[in-house]
């Protein structure tokens, strides 16, 4: 499993599609779709994701998550709780991932993992 993170509009999905040669039809937007597709984009919408279930069904999935912990802290408690849950999910995933990259201005920064994509 790989985890790709980055802010809004930073080119995460374009980067993954260019590296894999896959197309938009290969991208999941829900946990159910992610069990059978190679890329799951929009992970931040699913902070309570059952990671064990997903990885048992699709251990090679590439997960793409928008960074939500930077910037102004929201006033609403629900928004703060959501940001906390997404951040903790990413921490759990990063521990298990073979590779973690952050995309900024379309440029990758390898946070974990060595070598090139396989």
Q: Characterize the biggest β-sheet.
A: 6 strands, mixed
Q: What is the share of helical residues?
A: 25-40%
Shape: globular
Radius of gyration: 14 Å
Distance between the termini: 11 Å
Oligomer: single chain
Structural class: alpha/beta
**Average pLDDT metric:** 95
Kindly estimate the percentage of residues that lie in beta strands according to DSSP: 15-25%
- Model regions low in confidence, pLDDT < 50 over at least 5 residues: none
User: Strand order across the biggest sheet?
Assistant: 2-3-4-1-5-6
Task: Say how many strands there are.
Answer: 6
Alpha plus pi helix count = 4
Strand and helix order? EHEHEHEHEE
Structural description of this entry:
With 118 residues, the protein is an alpha/beta fold. The chain contains 4 helices and 6 strands. It has helices spanning 12-20, 31-34, 51-57, 77-96, and strands spanning 2-6, 27-28, 39-41, 62-66, 99-104, 107-112. The chain has a 6-stranded mixed sheet with strand order 2-3-4-1-5-6, sandwiched between helices. The mean pLDDT is 95.
Topology summary:
Blueprint: E1 2-6, H1 12-20, E2 27-28, H2 31-34, E3 39-41, H3 51-57, E4 62-66, H4 77-96, E5 99-104, E6 107-112
Parallel strand pairs: 1-4, 1-5, 2-3, 3-4
Antiparallel strand pairs: 5-6
């Amino acid at each position: 499993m790989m985890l790709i993170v980055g802010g809004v509009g930073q080119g995460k999905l374009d980067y993954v599609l260019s590296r894999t040669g896959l197309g938009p039809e290969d991208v999941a937007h829900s946990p159910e779709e992610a069990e059978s597709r190679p890329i799951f984009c929009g992970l931040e919408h699913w902070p309570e994701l059952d990671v064990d279930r997903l990885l048992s069904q699709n251990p090679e999935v590439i997960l793409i998550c928008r960074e939500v912990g930077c910037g102004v802290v929201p006033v609403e408690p629900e928004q703060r709780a959501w940001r906390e849950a997404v951040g903790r999910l990413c921490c759990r995933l990063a521990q298990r991932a073979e590779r973690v990259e952050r995309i900024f201005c379309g440029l990758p920064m390898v946070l974990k993992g060595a070598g090139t994509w396989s």
